[in-house]
TrEMBL record:
GO terms for biological process: immune system process. It comes from Cirrhinus mrigala (Mrigala). This is Ig-like domain-containing protein. It comes from the Eukaryota. Pfam families: V-set.
Length: 72
């Protein structure tokens, strides 16, 4: 599963990905700074160019991945 996040602010070079499970607080999954990803959770990958867009990739979708996903 791929989730896309894009923006048009040329001065912004970072995209953060969050997961919010039902009834839970937002949890940082990882972020992309320029083209360098940092991911804190197994099974998730962040790719792209933070100056334009980023993709959150879930390698093997499972029931526990059922949540709202946000980028900022």
């Amino acid at each position: 599963m791929n989730i896309t996040c894009s923006h048009h602010d040329k001065s912004y070079d970072k995209i953060f990905w969050y997961q919010q499970s039902d009834g839970q607080d937002l949890e940082l999954l990882g972020f992309l700074s320029f083209k360098q990803p940092l991911v804190d959770r197994k099974g998730f990958t962040v790719i792209g160019d933070a100056e334009k867009e980023a993709f959150l990739v879930v390698s093997s979708v499972k029931a526990e991945h059922s949540a709202m996903y946000f980028c900022a």
